[in-house]
Design a protein that fits this description.
Length: about 190
C-alpha cells in the first residue's frame, strides 16, 4: 500500500516537473493589439535597439541566466545563430527573477557569455519578468491583450518565444525544451 502511494506521488511529481519544464505551444499567426515592431529595449552595452529592425525576420526570444542548470543551452542558441542567422534573430534577455541565477553586472554577463559559449547573438540589458511591472517586451509576450495569441507564464530561465517574420507570436516553449528541438529548428529553417 505504501509503495503504491509513493509510486503515485512520484509519478505525479514527474508529470508536474515535465509540464513545468518541457511543455510548449505552437500557434497560428494573429495580430495583437500592440505591434511587436513598436517595441524596443537597450542592449547589454546600453544602446537602444528598436524592434522595427526585425521586420521580415523570425525571432527567438529567451530569458537567460549564467548560473542555471539550463545555462548550457547557450550552446544550442549559438548553434541556431550560426546556422540560421540570416533568417532567425536570437535575442537573450538576462533575468535575475528565477532563483537569483543572474546576479552579475552587464559587463560580467557579457564576458561570461563570450568566454564560455562564444555567444555572438544579441544580448539585451537585464530585465524584470515577474511582478506587476515586467519589461515591455515581456509584457507583450505574456499578455494575450497585447500579443493577440495567449497569456503566458514564464516559470524559469530559458523559456523560449518564437515570433514569425510578420511580428506574430507563434510559439512558447518552456525551459526544458532545447533550442535545437525539432519544433524550433523547423521554425528557423522554413523559408
Amino acid at each position: 500500500m505504501i509503495i503504491t502511494i509513493v509510486g503515485v506521488i512520484t509519478l505525479a511529481l514527474v508529470l508536474v516537473g515535465w509540464n513545468m519544464f518541457k511543455g510548449g505551444n505552437t500557434y497560428n499567426a494573429q495580430s495583437g493589439t500592440i505591434d511587436f515592431y513598436s517595441l524596443s529595449c537597450n542592449t547589454i552595452d546600453g544602446e537602444e535597439y528598436n524592434f522595427s529592425q526585425l521586420k521580415g525576420k523570425k525571432v527567438l526570444i529567451v530569458n537567460t541566466a549564467s548560473k542555471c542548470g539550463f545555462t548550457p543551452q547557450y550552446n544550442g542558441l549559438q548553434r541556431l545563430q550560426k546556422e540560421f542567422g540570416e533568417q532567425l534573430t536570437v535575442i537573450a534577455f538576462p533575468c535575475n527573477d528565477f532563483g537569483k541565477q543572474e546576479s552579475g553586472t552587464h559587463e560580467e554577463i557579457n564576458s561570461f557569455c563570450e568566454k564560455n559559449y562564444g555567444v555572438s547573438f544579441l544580448i539585451m540589458e537585464k530585465v524584470k519578468i515577474k511582478g506587476s511591472n515586467p519589461h515591455s517586451v515581456y509584457r507583450w509576450l505574456l499578455n494575450e491583450s497585447e500579443n493577440g495569441i495567449a497569456d503566458h507564464n514564464v516559470r524559469w530561465n530559458f523559456h523560449k518565444f518564437l515570433i514569425d517574420s510578420n511580428g506574430s507570436l507563434v510559439g512558447s516553449y518552456k525551459s526544458g525544451v532545447e533550442p535545437t528541438d525539432n519544433r524550433i529548428i523547423s521554425f528557423a529553417s522554413k523559408k
